[in-house]
Amino acid sequence: MTTPTPSLHEQSLSELAASLHRKEVSAVEVAQHFLNRAKNDSCGAFLDINEEITLAQARASDARIAAGTGGCLEGVPIAHKDVFVTRDFATTAGSKMLNGYRSPFDATVVQKLGAGVNGQGGAGMVTLGKVSCDEFAMGSSNENSAYGAVRNPWHTEHVPGGSSGGSAAAVAARLAPAATGTDTGGSIRQPASFCGITGIKPTYGRASRYGMIAYASSLDQAGAMARSAEDCALLLSAMCGADLDRDSTSLDVAAENFSAQLSHPLQGLRVGIPKEFFGDGLAADVRSAIDAALDHLVHQGAQLVPISLPRTELSIPVYYIIAPAEASSNLSRFDGVKFGHRAKDYTDLVDMYKKTRAQGFGDEVKRRIMTGAYVLSHGYYDAYYLQAQKIRRMIADDFQRAFADCDVIAGPVAPTVAWKLGEKADDPIANYLADIFTLPASLAGLPGMSLPVGFGDSGLPVGMQLIGNYLQEARLLNVAHQFQLTTDHHLRTPEGV
Ligand code: GLN
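Above: the input record for the complex with glutamine. Below: its predicted structure, written as tokens.
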């Protein structure tokens, strides 16, 4: 067995898995290497690290490797977004409401990536710890976490994006080779874009929501964040699959091996370019990085097809009605009785509820609960919620019309690169508007991903979004992989990493 070299954090998931499988390095050594990096985390990505637990998991991996029973990513470390419940680590969802909360079980996704579900072998990954996010996944800068902002490893005065900001920063800074994320309206794609990594949100229902703390259940979806499409394919193959007994919206489709579908050439691929994604609101530096990436796809044999997604702008009001409506219902469970925080001094039950919720929730969460309760209330339901649902359907139909003419849709993930910490912190509307390009696919339940395609004027990464039709994750990953085979944006690291 060789001693671990610093280059462990420069290896891809398949390289790490292969070195572990060949016993060139042990899972304990790999875990220790990443733990040392995570403990010196200067971007504030990690919320909970427990060396003993991680090393115990690594020892179990080493035993499985020795016995020849290891999973496909046996012994490879991963960080989990803090909205996935975990038995061995605290789960806070970035909220004071769940300060120190311990779940009695692991989320399905955590089990599938780890030691497995009900004795059925999992991928064998070792949990490095839990990473930060916006409170209950509400936000796009990670500044809404009750445990402090996360810094963008490329430029520490800038946000990493959100809500899966800790996941993206951890991967970009090579503190973890991979991370889970969740995407309700862009929370995997946008932080992946801001931090220069690759992230994919599969079709709604592809990955189980069991044990994923609910924000807006009709939109929430788990996904993968890593350096490359090849790495994301490995992760996604392990995390997806029907979980019908535990998640009623889980899709009854078999797990797929996405890694086996990456090698198709792009010759003849029809890439839809929605004109609404390239309007005045798009920053010039983002636009030129995307244009260059599209030229590259053409060079690889793809063909660009102009399309229209006419209700793109409406996705903002529609999302910011539906998501808060569902959040107001989902978050009613945090009442001081069943989970987490309970106010100390109260007179009666109602007073206890009020004080607990006033103390436990941050401003943005309260804003969404109030908005949600309002749009669902008698007299306003028809005017807001019902209308929003109708337009949501029209947005999904617009995509189906577009997919008659193209195989994938490409465009920016966000109108700008990562903004400065604090820049939009007091302006919720400015945050909401920046979600414009990620919300349509979320409302339609379509798979979407972000891959790094260059840098803006300030040296911050730019991600390109790819959107596919339902269950077309393999195609998205294939396109991204072919792009990454002939480009190196995904291999760049921030200075000092
Ligand atoms: N930024 C969006 C919001 O604040 C999306 C968040 C997410 O996808 N979880 O709701």
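Notes for the reader.
The domain at 8-261 is CATH 3.90.1300.10 (Amidase signature (AS) enzymes).
The first helix runs from residue 13 to 21.
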